[in-house]
Amino acid sequence: MPTTPARIISLRAAGTCFTVELTEPVPRVLHWGADLGELTDADFAALSLTAEPAILNNSVDVPRHFTVWPTEADGWSGTPAHHGHLAGTAAAPRLTTTGTTYRQESDGSGEIQVELTDASSDLDITLTYTLGPSGVLSVASGITRRTEGDPAPYDLAQVLTLLPLPRRATEILDFTGKWSRERSPQRRTIAHGVHSREVRRGKPGLDSPYLLAVGVPGFGFGAGEVWGVHVGWSGDQRYLVEQLPEGAGTHASVLGGGELLRAGEIRLEPGQTYRTPACHFAWSAEGLDGLADRFHTLMRARPNHPSAPRPLVLNSWEAVYFDHDLDRLLRLADRAAEVGVERFVLDDGWFSGRRADNAGLGDWTVDPAVWPDGLSPLVDHVRALGMDFGLWVEPEMVNLDSDLAREHPNWVLGPAAGVGPTARNQYALDIANPEVFTYLLKSLDRLVDTYGIAFLKWDHNRELHEPVHGPDDRPAAHAQVDALYRLLDALKERHPGLEIESCASGGGRIDLGILARTDRVWASDCNDPVERQSIQRWTAQLLPPELIGAHFGPSPSHTTARISSDAFRLTTALFGHPGIEQDITQCPPEELARLTAWTALYRELRPLLHGGRTVRADLEDEARLLHGVVAHDGSAAIYCWARVATSPEGQSGRVRLPGLYADTRYQVRVRTDLGLPSFHQTSSPAWLTEAVQDWIELPGAVLAVAGVPMPTLNPEQALLIEVRREK
């Protein structure tokens, strides 16, 4: 990578750019957002000139610049990029640049690397900005303690990546949630001070901020300028938006995030390096769908992104729970194959002593009392039916009622004075302990090898309270995540074809760090279709549908006791990586027929669902939802028109179908494979009545610009609308 002599350098891709001026002592950020185009030297000079802010009254006597590594030395009174101390000293970092490298590729990707040093603390910092063809700017840094100088460890308290925002970005969107209600959006207006979301759960959590977005007032799915950040780390995190009265240079506020470090967690001895997780920043002029499209493009470009068609799954949990009877499971497998399932997953209850959730965790051997011949009779039967086999595990956890805990009580993560209360009847294992790590790797390797397992559902069902280890109670939250990553990497290296799902009481560990090592996520333990419509809609803000586990569950719902139609449940589960989580041996013939039609419909639509652009309509009534997937060239689309509750209005009015091209002629039909929904009307709009019978021709100007009147559905009903370019 060549060293650049240029004073101003810019990364440009997919209509966005990031521009830095190589000022001394620390480079400053000139611009992040819309592509400024190919600028001349005079243009760059103008950008630099207009980056000089006023000097305010009662202020530092030089212009405040917002640098790539903001600290008080820049006159920045907000949250610093890093802070720490050297045995109580060296607490005022004053950085200088020691080198900069820059490259820009023809495909739009590029990288800027800035080398910084702080003489007072003997720290060297490498800050790397990578802009890919998706337009997502990924930022990571390494902080190294030099070998010469004070031998005392440097206590690193915080490292954050911060980027500036313009004055027009005034509205914040992030997420909260709980078990079975993950990724619930919440909005607020930026005010002076810090909007900070801190995660102290040892994983992103069911209330994960997930993606912190800031945009112009009223930004929606299809319109409005918006900036966002995601912290790609599977442990404690911090997200923030901060606005000071004096601004941030010529910018108004800052957006950022990073790992949340617990006290004493990172103590850099001479020669040691702390590497931050990547923070992924994206900008869009086309609202939240534009932002989602950038992240989906980023994910689909990964070398490890699933390339084969995503198999339709049956998971045994809500079918049999802990009742692992071989004959019953064989019948379930037979029925699964009959309706078109491609992957059979045996959930919790197969290992030693596991008849309920209060025993057995940690003992990863097949229970001979339930499975006297091992899992082979089931596995062989599943494979003979043409399906592959998956298995549920929760390797990071342990029940005290287990042989593992009785033989190795010191392997349980917690204070030396004794562990606190259980959660879900379990504790975490200290997987950073080399002995624990080796035990887990050998156990999992043996299982995968013995049974030729194609898929592991990897669960994590409690938060890490008091995550310390050793007689000195050293903090261990960071070490747990690091060990998890190494464990997943080692298992994948031994079994390259193995797929792994990230499950954590449902959607409690969904981030781009874990997805660098796994192949899908379990969005929620809730299969209630009303809840799932929202959960899946917002999970898709970061992840493309093929990575989002979405299952058809029984009625009444396991988590909400809601009774719903099988057609609504099936339609909802279609928009993800679908599966079944129900005892389908008990289904009546008409429901089995719809299940079989649904699996065929999924296989037909799979290339579009898992390769197109996710779109969501901005509607004034939250009881009505319109979402879908559109081919990138606008040639095909599938939409779901759903209602989750009643509304005062009887008519929808004209509703635009997002993502279609106004200058293209289309054909439209209603898919009736699962039957028609229940309507709250005497008759449907005329166009819909015709589209139920066959394809009808409608121009893009009507579909995408004028809109079409939608039918009024009864609550908890959904309609599938298919669109294709006119032949």
How would you sum up this structure, described in words?
The chain contains 13 helices and 40 strands. The protein is α+β, with helices and mostly antiparallel strands. It has three domains: 8-300, Distorted Sandwich (Beta-galactosidase, Chain A, domain 5); 342-522, Aldolase class I (TIM Barrel, Alpha-Beta Barrel); 617-725, Immunoglobulin-like (Sandwich), CATH 2.60.40.1180. The strands form nine sheets. Strands 5, 6, 7, 8, 11, 12, 14, 15, 19 and 20 form a ten-stranded antiparallel beta sheet that branches. Strands 21-22-23-26-29-30-31-32 form an eight-stranded parallel β-barrel. Strand 2 and strand 3 (28-34) form a beta hairpin. Helix 4 (326-339) packs parallel to helix 5 (376-384), helix 7 runs parallel beside helix 8 and helix 10 runs parallel beside helix 11 (589-609). The longest helix has 21 residues, at 589-609. The protein starts with 7 loop residues before the first strand and ends with a strand. 51% of the residues are buried. The model has no long low-confidence stretch (mean pLDDT 96).
